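ARCHIVE CARD
CATEGORY: sequence design from structure
SOURCE FIELD: tokenized fold
FIELD CONTENT:
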């Protein structure tokens, strides 16, 4: 695996921490990896090249 450094708003990190604290994920890294996998799956599942909309990029 490669290490990636990124900046995430404090509120989003707090929400990730809540997921870790509740036991849904073992750590922040796994929670973020899961989010990336989900984003990639959503991007390519059943969408044609012309109909892709990136709703995950909205803040």
């Amino acid at each position: 695996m490669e290490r990636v450094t990124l900046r995430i708003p404090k509120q989003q990190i707090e929400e990730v921490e809540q997921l870790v604290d509740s036991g849904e994920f073992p750590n922040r890294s796994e929670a973020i990896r899961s989010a990336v996998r989900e984003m990639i799956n959503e991007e390519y599942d059943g969408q044609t090249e012309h109909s892709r909309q990136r709703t995950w990029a909205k803040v």
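CARD ANNOTATION: The chain has two helices and no strands. The longest helix spans residues 28-44.
SHELF: design records, drawer C
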